[in-house]
Design a protein that fits this description.
Elements lengths: L4 E4 L2 E4 L3 H10 L4 H18 L10
């Protein structure tokens, strides 16, 4: 099993927490297109599931 902490120059450096590594993954430039696509898909599904979707029906 790997150690819980990495050592560097005489002091222990803790691994980043799950929350901070997740936020860093979402905000990195290389994942921007994937995060944008998922966000727009979620907005579209939310709109089509709401009562505002009735505006798309022909009169």
């Amino acid at each position: 099993m790997p150690p819980k902490q990495m050592t560097g120059k005489g002091r222990a450096v803790a691994e980043p927490s799950f929350a901070s590594s997740t936020v860093q993954a979402f905000t990195s430039a290389e994942n921007r297109s994937v995060v944008t696509a998922i966000g727009l898909f979620a907005i579209g599904v939310t709109f089509l599931h709401s009562s505002w979707a009735e505006m798309l029906l022909p009169a």
